[in-house]
Design goal:
- It is built from 15 helices and eight strands.
- The chain has about 425 residues and is α+β, with helices and mostly antiparallel strands.
- The strands form two sheets. It has a five-stranded antiparallel β-sheet, with no helix packed on it.
Length: about 425
């Protein structure tokens, strides 16, 4: 039962004035309570909260970065409690309302306050994590996992408190009853519960969204996410087949999400040219003069020759044999050419990692790997840029005296045998 609330004198006078219209006074009081809640919300968020924002932004270490934004989100969440408390207090003075309705509105306001406080605590934990990650040793001792456990506990307690408030029961008996039913519920609805938890986790951390390109070899999935349901994630593969993945698999198993590549605006090229190691040699004066005609190599060859001349001059001063002198190689010059060619290519993203490196030699030749990113993430355009780059590099190799290594076939031998047989 609600405690009796004595209305002010002006409300009693208004009630006597509107006695001919029984519901008119109720509507006026409801409108007054709604107006009071709106004013409380306005004053809290537009005046007090704005002042607190300015104060927080002036504090050292705030106003920039995630921790500053999380501090403001904590304050904003807590500010939502004010109008709900005004409504909970005001609904008690509204005449003519059924007691059950008044109880429900007050319970809903209390439930909203509990949820708001839980969300504020969650943002406070995020702010604490952001502040902790600024420490030098935070990388070696992360606390994000522990804070997530605390969040789960907070939301579980908040959820139970909200249910108990709306049902009008005490929290203790509710927890006891749920504990007794947990074993049965877990046994009957095991898949549904696991899928629900996975769905909440997926939507919470945003690991998968509609339209994402994901790759999960264990489920034969490689394509775009077209549907996210409680039990399954539907993926349309690039061969236009459809794969359905149990939602819980995206939590318990590893997969690759290409969204980061699409948001970064660059797609990686990582491919090697396998060179014949027998074609690697020093460059003589004639070859150097020919390669200096490449505009992208003039500065490199000039600086390299100056470096080697100084090295060799110092070497001669020590009386060392000329065999110890350093000379320019065709492979080193080709590496320099490839790097400079990529930096001038309009389809290559020069603000991202760009490497031209040798890998360990194999029986198939010496791998010269091209590691860079294109400016486009579209599949067809990416393949076009990649093909254009390697078309050029394969065609320019003979100018440096280099050859691509490839396994020989008996086609040449058979052609020669056929020509001899035809001549005879």
């Amino acid at each position: 039962m609600l405690d009796a609330v004595v209305a002010p004198q002006w409300l009693q006078d208004l009630q006597r004035t509107l006695e001919p219209w029984p519901w008119a006074y109720t509507l006026v009081v409801v409108a007054a309570v709604a107006l009071a809640a709106w004013l409380a919300n306005f004053v809290t968020k537009r005046i007090l909260l704005r002042g607190l924002r300015k104060l927080v932004n002036r504090l050292p270490g705030n106003g920039a970065g995630n921790e500053g934004r999380n501090n403001l989100r904590v304050i904003s969440r807590l500010a939502n409690v004010v109008p709900s408390m005004v409504i909970a207090a005001g609904v008690q003075v509204v005449p003519g309302l059924p007691p059950q309705l008044v109880e429900f509105v007050m319970g809903a306001c209390r439930a909203w306050a509990v949820l708001t406080v839980a969300l504020a605590v969650s943002h406070a934990l995020d702010a604490a994590n952001d502040l902790y990650e600024r420490r030098p040793d935070a990388r070696n001792k992360p606390i994000k996992g522990y804070l997530q456990v605390v969040k789960i506990v907070v939301f579980v307690i908040a959820g139970l408190s909200i249910v108990a408030t709306l049902l009008g029961v005490k929290l203790g008996p509710l927890v006891t009853g749920l504990g007794a039913a947990t074993a049965v519920l877990m046994l009957i609805f095991q898949d549904t519960i696991l899928s629900l938890v996975a769905s909440v986790q997926i939507s919470g951390d945003g690991r998968v969204r509609l339209g994402d390109w994901i790759e999960m070899p264990s489920q034969n999935a490689d394509g775009d996410v077209i549907d996210i349901a409680l039990h399954t994630i539907t993926v349309q593969n690039f061969d236009k087949t459809i794969t359905t993945i149990p939602t819980k698999k995206l939590v318990t198993e590893s997969f690759k999400n290409w969204r980061g590549m699409q948001e970064a605006g660059g797609r990686r090229i990582k491919r090697a040219l396998y060179l014949d190691q027998h074609s690697v040699d020093f460059l003589d004066a004639t070859a150097l003069a020919r390669l200096e005609q490449f505009a992208v190599l003039r500065e490199y060859l000039r600086d390299k020759q100056a470096e080697l001349e100084q090295w060799n001059a110092d070497l001669r001063a020590t009386g060392m044999d000329a065999i110890n002198a350093r000379r320019v190689t065709n492979l080193g010059t080709f590496r320099a050419y490839v790097e400079r060619y990529l930096r001038q290519h309009p389809g290559i993203h020069t603000d991202m990692t760009l490497l031209v490196r040798q890998l360990q030699p194999t029986t198939e030749g010496l791998p010269l790997e091209i590691y860079c990113f294109t400016r486009t993430t579209a599949w067809a355009d990416y393949e076009g840029v990649q093909s254009d780059v390697f078309d050029h590099l394969l065609a320019i190799l003979p100018a440096f005296g280099l050859r691509v290594f490839q396994a020989s076939s008996d086609a040449m031998l058979m052609a020669a045998q056929q020509q001899r047989a035809f001549a005879e």
